[in-house]
Write a structure and sequence with these properties.
little secondary structure, two-stranded antiparallel sheet, about 90 residues
């Protein structure tokens, strides 16, 4: 994933960030997993407490390439991510 064609991003407190489009085939109703890594301690967390999705907060280290996160803390809310936009296919295409 990139942001303005760069693989890192620095986001000011409270500011939104939008990634570049990602070519990822997603079928109707499927679920996806998104991993985020913060190299320094984050003191202010943006979250959605009633996301109806599961989030796993890992122990220290970059685990963005791991298939599963073992020993993490589970949360019913989402953190740092407010939405994933998936364009609908046009009918007849």
């Amino acid at each position: 994933m990139t942001f303005g064609k760069k693989d890192t991003i620095l986001i000011a407190p409270g500011a939104p960030a939008l990634s570049d489009p990602v070519d990822l085939p997603v079928t109707d109703g499927s679920e996806i997993a998104i991993s985020l890594y913060f190299p320094k301690r984050v003191t202010s967390v943006t979250g959605h407490s009633l996301a109806l999705r599961r989030a796993v907060i890992s122990k220290h280290g970059d685990q963005t390439q791991d298939i599963a996160i073992e020993g993490g803390k589970e949360s019913d809310g989402s953190v740092f991510l407010s939405e994933v936009l998936v364009p609908a296919k046009r009918k007849g295409v």
